Amino acid sequence: MAYDPNNIFAKILRGEIPCDKVYEDEHTLAFNDINPQTPTHVLVVPKGPYVSWTDFSERASDAEIAALVRAVGTVAKQAGAVEEGYRVLSNAGANANQEVPHLHLHVFAGRPLGRMVAKAKE
Ligand code: 5GP
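^ thats the input. predicted complex w/ guanosine-5'-monophosphate below
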């Protein structure tokens, strides 16, 4: 899938739409989800134009990859979530219900998070 520069996170990265920023470095931005599913729900995104985890893993530089991974750890620490636990999740493609076509990692914390995924009905 080609990168769509008009996706909502691209607009946030360009400053065209505001966000509630919690962390930023040269390669990465993290901000609170507009519709939080948990008391802490942060989105961690690379600043570069990557559609998904697959795209990022193929095209991103080592520095961008390291920055994204480290940013997730920093966000979890900043949220005070390390001791009680947290979950990192990235949806890629249709089966995963990816809504925004710019790679993002969800960081969920602040309450028990239940099962990893819903079990399929038999
Ligand atoms: P996905 O389903 O693609 O993994 O998750 C997209 C996430 O982006 C959703 O949790 C949704 O609430 C969040 N989101 C969508 N639009 C905006 C926005 O304009 N600002 C922020 N902060 N989050 C958004």
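The chain has a mean pLDDT of 97.
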